[in-house]
Specification:
Layout: H1 6-11, H2 19-25, H3 29-34, H4 44-65, H5 71-81, H6 84-93, H7 104-107, H8 114-132, H9 134-150, H10 160-171, E1 176-184, E2 191-198, E3 201-208, H11 211-227
Antiparallel strand pairs: 1-2, 2-3
């Protein structure tokens, strides 16, 4: 047993059969390039299959949860749940970067790691599918996503930034800006605070592990304040 991944396996209740699949799922291409003399696989192929499994399971959950909705609603709702921001946040919650094999350059990268985290989570699902089978992958995905699916409200599906822009444009001309007022933490644990400003007036503030998420939270805050 690879004790390096034991906490991760325990979290998802996995008894691995092929450790190499999980090692590949947590290996960035840059690390593979640094070790070209070794037989190392990265997460590229596993991400592809994990993405497909995730889409299928979410589609199945939505089909059963909303028996009276049409395909357009189901597709839009799947996109709401299966997006880079959501997958990146899940990866952060389980600290996937703590297990990742990254090159020296990538380790020192202080830029937003959202895309890497998204890809790595999908690759991990791909590894689970190949190692444990579809039912185990479905169990993990259901455990993570079903509570949110059951709690979904119609307004959740509308992008808050687009909604806020429509509201403000209907009231008159002006410029909407999203200003980062705090950017702290390392690549593994970024934290942003953003305020949304219209014609020089701060309408709302939001925070998140990515600038994109913080902007959405700021827009949501602005919309809530206008309703109150």
């Amino acid at each position: 047993m690879n004790t390096l991944y034991q906490k991760l396996f325990d979290f998802f209740s996995i008894e691995p059969k092929d450790i190499s699949l999980y090692t590949a799922a947590l290996t960035h291409a840059s690390y593979k390039n640094e070790h070209q003399n070794e037989n190392i696989q990265d997460y590229d192929r596993l991400e592809y299959i994990g993405d497909s499994v995730l889409d299928l399971v979410i589609a199945d959950l939505l089909y059963k949860q909303f028996p009276n909705e049409r395909s357009g609603f189901l597709s839009k709702t799947r996109s709401y749940f299966v997006n880079g921001e959501t997958l990146s946040e899940i990866s952060q919650k389980v600290n996937l970067l703590d297990y990742a094999n990254l090159s020296k350059g990538e380790l020192n990268n202080t830029l937003d790691r959202s895309k890497l985290l998204e890809d790595m989570f999908e690759a991990l699902l791909g590894a689970v599918y190949l190692d444990q089978g579809y039912e185990k992958a479905k169990e993990i995905i259901t455990l993570i996503f079903l509570p949110g699916i059951k709690a979904l409200k119609p307004e959740d599906l509308q992008d808050p930034k687009s909604h806020l822009q429509e509201v403000l444009q209907a009231e008159g001309k002006g410029k909407i800006e999203y200003r980062v007022i705090l950017d702290e933490g390392n690549a593994q644990n970024k934290h942003f605070i953003v305020e949304v400003v219209f014609n020089g007036i701060v309408l709302g503030t939001g925070q998140g592990s990515s600038k994109k998420h913080a902007e959405k939270e700021a827009a949501s805050d602005a919309l809530r304040r206008r309703i109150q």
